[in-house]
Amino acid sequence: MDQNREDRPLTFHEKLLKFLKNQKKKIHIHLLILFPILLVAFILLYTMDTRKVAEAEPATDAVLTGSIVGDIMTGRYVEYITDRHGYEYLFRYAQPLFDTSDYVTGNFENPATDRNVEQKEGKSIALKTDSHSVAGLANAGFNTVAVANNHMMDYGEPALHDTLALMDEKQIDAVGAGKNMKDAHDRISYQEINGMTIATLSFSDLTDRDVRADEQSGGILDFTPETFIPLTAEAAKKADLVLVHAHWGNEYNSRASDRQKELARALSDAGADIIIGHHPHVLESIEVYNDTVIFYSLGNFIFDQGWTRTRETALVQFHVLDSGDTRFEVTPMKIREATPAPINNWDKLAEWSIIRQLTRDLNADWEYENEKLTFTINQNVNFEEGDMKR
Which run of H or of E encompasses 289? Predict the structure, then answer.
């Protein structure tokens, strides 16, 4: 009987048990082989730069092309990156879009100084960067930056004065602050580009009284109605296109507050054509009000925050067309090592998240094609004798 049992073929269950028993003896060998392979694959995946450079072609139907971004902070942990790679490293994936632009602007979220200045008392988070950051902005193509924000006065007036001087030296118009109220008003930017006059202004809704510019002291411009409404209205009379930076809202809140909407409508009524929101550090929706395009928050652009939502961003290009329309093209991007880059084809979840966030309240016909969110608004820009007029 035992002989018969040995001679009969094994059942499937017996074969499976035998296989598992043999594999159990070899599992340590398999793990020793597999672990280094997985480790190398992980290291290669993490260290290899699989991000892609933005694709950009000059818009042949545009009179003027501009680029807009959100918060730029080159201090704190970002300095570890720039110390190793330089400031060009931060902009390298977005650079083609800047290169095809006549106008580039963003929010400069920290003072720039090489002096050993004292931090403002009572500030739990104080930001600053060095003078090389301003050269980095100039080399990237920025010709204006907003400096009306809640960190520009973190190191007092000396750091503000250094920032303004560095911007002047690199021919970047720093708007929204000054050595006193008159200087802050005088720093409203009017640039003549391709036959158009472009005005850029900046105001902050997050200011203590002691950081506001006044007749004697340096500081920033805030959203006091007596300040922002007449300055915006004056710019609308002088310029063909008015862009206003608005530092407002609630940090990490992806929905625009009632206060933001109220200020946006007041800016629009005063003559703003494009409103560039920042401070929440996350994306908020786009809205159109009376032909004014409102980006409630473009989130971070250059920053060291690591939460997923704070690493989602967008770069806006606008093209003023011969017809008088303005075409907006928004490129979704993701930040890694403080460096924004277009979304990879395989990262559809991040792409969907960004588009959903931007279009939540967008009350204009839009489409998403070739990795760009596109919509066109008639902002009543007309040609008269070769110039752009309202």
Answer: strand 286-289
